[in-house]
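## retry 2 of 3
previous attempt timed out at serialization; input unchanged, resubmitting
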Amino acid sequence: MPAYVIVDVDVLDAAEFARYAELVPPTIAQYGGRYLARGGRTVLLDGEPEPKRVVILEFPTLERAREWEASPEYAPARAIRRRAARVRMVAVEGVSPSP
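## retry succeeded, writing output
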């Protein structure tokens, strides 16, 4: 069952975050993930606070998403991300396809 990683990003250092953005895609692909949305235009439909930048990733399973986030391949990028941005990241399991 697919899983989705939803990230709300508040970039604090654009130059450092650009380095992060260069390093991350191969690590996502290595764990079977792909981008569904990557910082495109957003519209707040309800609630607060307004997100700054939203990223949505799809992985084959919740376990693969967790493995990616904790992986040694992602670790250098994660360290940069933690310096360059404030992030809320959540993984959610998808639903089974309808018959």
